[in-house]
Amino acid sequence: MSAPLASQLELRDVTKRFGGVAAVDGVTFDIAKGDIVGIIGPNGAGKTTLLNCISGLQRLDGGDIRWQGDSISGLAPHRIAKLGIGRTFQIVRPFGSMTVRENAAIGALFGSAEARRRPKEAFEQADEVLELVGLKAKAGLAVSTLTIPDRKRLEVARAVATKPQLLLLDEVMAGLNNVEIDEALDMVRAVHATGVTVLLIEHVMRVIVGVCRRAIVLDFGQVLAQGEPEVVLRDERVIQAYLGERYAKRRQP
Ligand SMILES: Nc1ncnc2c1ncn2[C@@H]1O[C@H](COP(=O)(O)OP(=O)(O)OP(=O)(O)O)[C@@H](O)[C@H]1O
Ligand SMILES: [Mg+2]
Predict the structure, then answer these.
(1) What is the dihedral of CA 211, 217, 218, 219, to 10 degrees?
(2) Ligand 1 in contact with 16 (CB < 6 A)?
(3) pTM higher than 0.85 for the full model?
(4) What residues are neighbours of ligand 2 (ion), with CB under 5 Å?
(5) Please, what are the domains in the chain?
(6) In which band, very low, low, confident or very high, does the pLDDT at 59 lie, cut at 50, 70 and 90?
């Protein structure tokens, strides 16, 4: 057993409504410093909305989010980024006409207090993160020439270049084949190994089992289950709500 980790992010009864629908409905959990946690759940369960609440893109309708002991509820996204919370987006929108290196440097220029401010330093930092995510050889290419997996790598590189202490990843493996998923897994492990706490949304269970210490299952905006991935994925309620019978059968010896 590893030693218990100090709490870095605390969600208490977090609620976000769109019209009459609670997309996130009373969500409570803690993320420990240095942890790597997966959020899973059916389409429309509220996963992206939850990330939007943490990163300040959406205001809470109820509850509180605390970062290193202080409430960040209601802060603007750039303030939250400066505090050390970085994220990727489910729909990747890089600056297409710019190079890979320039895109990564933007993250460095507009990131946390730890990120570099001067262009020269920003490019140095961009080179470091491109190496980390395996894009160094493509640094000089225009983004428009990149394949889908490389665009996802770049999205992670841009977020890592902001020097976050907590990285929020929204389905960075979606649309990748098995080999590409393995490479992306290595990338996430490499980022986590630099000391970054990771909270990732993923539909690919191999990813959750492969890298996460803990999994949180959302269903209709609520936490249906949380715990060790292997245990959570065997939970009858999780199988019924999300994984379905096919997955359950495959897991039988
Ligand atoms: N800006 C918005 N305005 C209105 N409704 C929204 C908005 N964003 C999300 N919703 C609704 O909130 C619910 C949760 O959506 P969300 O995108 O958070 O789900 P998700 O778990 O990320 O799904 P997916 O796995 O498909 O990405 C859905 O019913 C969705 O239609
Ligand atoms: Mg989503």
Answers:
(1) 140
(2) no
(3) yes
(4) 47-48
(5) 1-84+165-253 (3.40.50.300), 91-164 (no CATH)
(6) very high
